[in-house]
Amino acid sequence: MRIDIDDPLDARIEVYQGLRDHVLRRRREGPGGDMAGVFVAEGDLVVARAVAAGYRLVSVLVDGKRTKPLPDEVADDVPVYAAGPEVLQRITGYHLHRGMLACFGRKAVPAPAEILPDLRSIVICEGVQNPTNLGVIIRCAAGLDIDGLLLDPTTADPLYRRAGRVSMGEAFKLPHARLDPLPSGLDVVHDHGFTTLALTPAPDAIDIAELSFAPDERVAVVLGSEGPGLTDDTMRAATHRVAIPMTGTVDSLNVGVAAGIAFFGLRMARRG
Q: What is the architecture of the domain spanning 2-105?
């Protein structure tokens, strides 16, 4: 259902305003914000995967000159707002070079205890505030046998537009829940029988290549923020501290890169 838009202040597209101001958007989409209960996805593939994951599509915003058909997942009764490049620039701060934006209704986020019984390999994030890094972590998790994501209160929203885009829509399929602040938030994970591996560049940590786990053993990789890493209390609360051995003068890796290596290391550890 196409609806042409020629006014950037049109109330029907207000949900798409200010996408460049990441801090403001997270505040508005978060609990108590004026946009709580919805999130914005970007790109045809990402939008299609959000629909396939069961999120309710509210509306779509496209360039008025778009000729490419919309994804089949966009139902005929969904409002499709079409605007010119100048209006889009005013609304979003950039041109829609990825084809489309879409507004979705959120689902209720389960408690950790609701999803942990069904999971075997998980990733836990403490203080990962950069949505791009979180998106990389999620994409690596989806491709390397990680089947769940737990987030402390200070970690970014996995449904935030940039996280969803960088993860190529995998953020919508990976089960996730919010933990209490770490280290106490790890209690529920340990209670469900998980071994927790705190990733750290510390020279006295266990070499990730030395790990060995049974195929059905429950394991959680715990990642910290870019720069500071995990807090000392969280590392002490984890079952093991684990390191990716470094060479040369580099002492650490981007958290998204480290996540991919750690997930692959866990896969190999399960093979003995």
A: 2-Layer Sandwich (3.30)
Which DSSP letter does residue 229 get?
A: B
How many residues belong to the chain?
272
Pairing mode, if any, of strands 80-83 and 121-125? Answer: unpaired
User: Could you tell me which of 240, 111, 236 has the C-alpha nearest to residue 182?
Assistant: 236
Q: Look at domain 112-269 and name its CATH class.
A: alpha beta
Q: 224: how many CB neighbours lie within 10 A of its CB?
A: 24
- For residue 143, CA distances in Å to 22, 54, 210, 263 come to 27, 21, 22, 9
pTM of the model: 0.93
Mean pLDDT in consecutive groups of 10 residues from the start of the chain, 272 residues: 92 84 71 83 95 97 91 96 87 69 95 98 97 97 97 95 95 97 98 98 94 97 93 97 90 92 97 77
